[in-house]
Amino acid sequence: MVLRRSLWFGFLTVASLLWVCPSIRAGSMSSVSFQCASLVVNGRSGRCTSPPLVLYPDGKYKIWGEQGTYKIEGNRLELSESRKRGRGRLLPGRQIVFEFTYRGKKHTVTFRRRKSLEAGTVIV
User: Fold this and answer.
1) Runs of H (alpha helix) within 2-92
2) Among 86, 71, 87, 95, which Cα is nearest to 21's?
3) Which residues contact 23 (CB under 8 A, 6 or more apart)?
4) How confident is the model over 43-71, as pLDDT tens digits?
5) Distance CA 105, CA 108 (A)
6) Comparing C-alpha atoms, which of 43, 48, 42, 41 is closest to residue 64?
7) pTM score > 0.85 for this model?
8) CA angle 79, 31, 50 (to 5 degrees)
9) Which of 48, 55, 89, 95 is the most buried (most CB within 10 A)?
10) CB-based burial of residue 1 (10 Å sphere; 0-12 exposed, 13-18 middle, 19+ buried)?
11) Which domains does the chain have, with CATH numbers?
């Protein structure tokens, strides 16, 4: 029973990734990198200086000096170590949006798939 649930969960995770990142296919499982595209704080645009969000095929991620695991449920991306930013929303156009309140100010940070690829990244 536990094995059956694990297999089912693994299948759903892979299916979610293929739905969100359709160009990830067997044989090309490399990291996927998203660049910060915009920052809005209390309705005002700001300079986006965030490092890229990197999602690895083994379920790990790296951003903002954090490293942990991620999971995708529907159109939501959950980063295990992200206490301040919460869940990200996966949007069409291969974007991820984080909305959170920090020091009393509403932040919206949008990431887009990187245009220039580093070695080991795939186009999603």
Assistant:
1) 2-20
2) 95
3) 122, 123, 124
4) 999 888 889 999 999 999 999 788 999 99
5) 10
6) 48
7) no
8) 55
9) 55
10) exposed
11) 2-113 (2.40.128)
Highest-scoring range by mean pLDDT, 15-29, 87-101, 104-118: 87-101
Tokens representing 36?
């910060």
Q: Cα 5 from chain centroid? A: 24
Q: What is the distance between the terminal CA atoms of the chain, rounded to a whole angstrom?
A: 34
Whole-angstrom distance, CA of residue 100 vs CA of residue 6: 32
Query: What's the 3-state SS for 66-121?
Result: EEEEEEEECCEEEECCCCCCCCEEEECCCEEEEEEEECCEEEEEEEEECCCCCCCE
Q: How many Å apart are CA 37 and CA 52, to the nearest integer?
A: 10
Q: Which amino acid is at 108?
A: T
Residue 70 bridge partners (DSSP)? 79
Residue found under tokens 């694990």: 6
